[in-house]
Amino acid sequence: MNDANPSPHDFAARTQALNIYSGQDALANLPRELRRHGVRRALVLCGKSVNEKTDLIRRIETLAESGVIGVFAGITEGAPAECIEDAARVALELRADGLIAVGAGSVIKGARVVAMLMGEGRPLQEMATRHVEGLPPVSQRLLAPKLPIFNVLTSPTSAQHRAGSAVRYHGSAHHLEFFDPKTRPKAVFWDAQALATAPLSLQRSTSFEIYWWSLMCMGAVDTCNPLVQASRRQAWRLARAAYPRLGSTAASSAQIDLCAAALLQNRDEEDGGRPWSCHLLARAAYAVAVGVFNHYRGITQSHGYAGMAPAVIRHLGPQVPDVLVALGEALGLANLDRDAGLAERVASAVEKEFEALGWQGKLAGRGIPGADAPLLVGFALRNYNANHDRLLDAHVDGLQRAIEASLRV
């Protein structure tokens, strides 16, 4: 069952205004971007480590001269609601007129929600996507103007210029989802020195998300429109070649190639591809991985991706044989007959690929109780990107079996 668009030449695409600066001294363009958008009192948002253990924030302050009014260094992993609310209060107190987000996924997506809080003046719960059991989720319309945002990446991330965002939440929902096109950044910086500040472990984690999505989207490439096909093929080519080079003497070029692959994944979405729900297997593994990341501390989203994909392929793959064939072809498999052994063959190839890159193809051993499988199914069904049309609701049994298999030692 592949829910990709059956008519690849019937599509709508949109092009968003975005300036990208890449390479050595790319940040030298930051002052010009601030002036272009009338920003005189920017607040820098970042995590504790980049503020205390690198000179990157000082470099940004020096470049921006009097254009930076302060630094909020309290954005933590997963962008918990509490730290996002604190950041918004600081930004309002300082009368910030722009936000400079310095970091990877958590900081970048968190900055968008900070801008939403400042602009809307409403609690997070009122702005978040609403989920009612059995009905499609409803994304709230956030109409107030938003501050301009400028993203300085310290590691490749597909969060770099999206309009959607999510934050960890202490309530039963485990995370809150938001969408506001006005929070897309005005400029993104792939500065070689900034990208060198992140620990290799962080680079490998955020980059694996890009690699993983590039592979999964190859499972639905031929049925997409021509623009999406180009993005998916090039993103996979870049990610597969670049990921093994992280930590080598060619790390700078690898990071920038992965930033480019992430950008292509976002363009895929803008061109009508819906990469986050491109086929059943991607939806299922993604939705569970998000739940794992937000609910269990110390487990990254990449752990969830690697740990769930093989199990999802084994248990749900037979329902989408065309996707299995496309994934197998992307990995270089030959003679892919649509028989009873196809799902196992592709799942084993995916596991082998992941293990070669240092990622375990199961969630077993990560401290998640096997009894939590129904809880994770519930989280998956509340994921807007993966289940906006309630397609996953029809696959609850297979999804639970896949989770149980991944958790089983």
Could you characterize what this model shows?
The protein is built from 17 helices and eight strands. By secondary structure, the chain is α/β, with parallel strands linked by helices. The chain folds into two domains: 177 residues, Rossmann fold; 208 residues, Dehydroquinate synthase-like, alpha domain, CATH 1.20.1090. It has a six-stranded parallel β-sheet, with helices on both faces. α8 packs parallel to α12, α9 packs antiparallel against α10 and α15 packs across α17. The protein is globular and about 65 Å long. The two termini are 30 Å apart. The N terminus is likely disordered.
Instruction: Determine the N-to-C terminus distance.
Output: 30 Å
Q: Please, how many helices?
A: 17
The SSE string, one letter per element, is: EHEHHEHEHHEEEEHHHHHHHHHHH
Low-confidence stretches: 1-5
> What is the CA-based Rg, rounded?
20 Å
- Average pLDDT works out at 95
Strand content: 5-15%
Oligomer: single chain
The level-1 CATH class of the largest domain: Mainly Alpha
**Overall number of strands:** 8
- What do we call the CATH topology of the largest domain? Dehydroquinate synthase-like, alpha domain
**Helix-strand makeup class:** alpha/beta
CATH architecture of the largest domain: Up-down Bundle
Shape: globular
- The CATH homologous superfamily of the largest domain: Dehydroquinate synthase-like - alpha domain
Q: If strands are numbered along the chain, what order do they take across the biggest sheet?
A: 1-8-5-4-2-3
Estimated helix fraction: 40-55%
